[in-house]
Amino acid sequence: MERRVRERPLSGYRQALRDRLLAAPVVPAPEPWRPVFESGYGVPVGGLLGIGFASHPESGHDLVMVVSHNGDGLFDAVTGEKIARDCDPDPEDSTPDTVADLTSPGLGPIADRRVHIAGLFGGGLHTTTGDGWALEAVTPAWPNDRVLLSVDGGLPHSGPHGEQWWHIFHSAHSELRAFGFSPCGETIAVATSSDVSLWTRRPEHSTFN
Length: 209
Fold this sequence. Notes:
mainly beta
């Protein structure tokens, strides 16, 4: 005879934390961060599987590789420009699950290397930077994930929302695939099954020396 398992009610502390997360609206990321794309939900990418970071060999800009059921794309994470596209990648290694290290072949200026991809098949991106920024995903109202940016060390975020922690993305419309910083900490990327959003703290026309 099947026994029903009764879930324990949340403690007062956990309920207060959940209520605080639910009450926090989506807000713009604070300075020095700025959105790379005009739309609040980035650019649409149908059937997105995962994303990964690379560095442009000439400008030094962060690049974001996007792998999807509809092909692969490469974005400049400072300007938002799509600088390469492959609508028909080689099926033998076109998705990261076909190789042991979860990589996909690069495009355009990084065609000579492979890029580690985080998303549907596993993997992960950096969730902290060397100067104290942090990202985390929380789900106070399943199944909709919320991505939080903070400088207070992460949960429980005891300070006021909008001062040391910010709810910058709410995946109410699609499944969260991956989120994180670029290795140098200059870019934030959030990818869902239908789009990718980017934030940068580099001036739009900057280059690395």
